[in-house]
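User: I'm writing a short report section on ligand binding and want a predicted complex to refer to. Could you take this sequence and zinc ion and write out the structure as tokens? A short remark afterwards would be nice.
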Amino acid sequence: MNYNKEASLLYEKGLTKFQITNLYQEILEEFYKACGHVETDVFIQKVKDVKRYERSYLHQIIDESCKRYLYSTDLTWREVKFEPKRIKRCKNCNAYFYDVSRNGRSLTCNIGGDYFVYDSTNRKFRNFYKNGEKLSVCGAELEIHKRTPIYKRKVNMILTDFFPAEGDIKGQAWLDEINIFHQNHG
Ligand SMILES: [Zn+2]
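Assistant: Sure. The structure tokens for the complex follow:
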């Protein structure tokens, strides 16, 4: 994963992707509790105002979130930077999330962790990837939606593995089918 500046810093401090995204989620939820139910742009503006005019309150929220989520940690607001402009709404579940990606183009949250399914052909769990990145639960659900024509949508739809393992005939066949579909309907 290519992280933005503040997430890279935490990664260098030894935090995993899961910990980084969840720590930001924790901070975000504290702001949400304080701001109440408002429109997205109003919410972002309120967080910007806190950052600008109530620094000590911002620091308090970050420090408490670090302690609550990471238990024994010496991380504080000095290491955990928060940029209100990274706040977004997940295109799948509509929750607020903090975009930790370098290009700032994440569409979905990471609240549910990585998406994986049980593959009964080799009895292994496997993840799904897009552009070489593991998809989160919301990322995968959004892909399923985008790639499934409305009249064909079903619950428990098989998700395309865009990097089928070598010898994965079923996976490769499914991928070919998807590609042909997109060529014809592109
Ligand atoms: Zn989501």
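A remark for your report: The longest strand covers residues 116-119. Residues 90, 92-93, 95, 108-109, 111, 138 surround zinc ion (CB under 6 Å).
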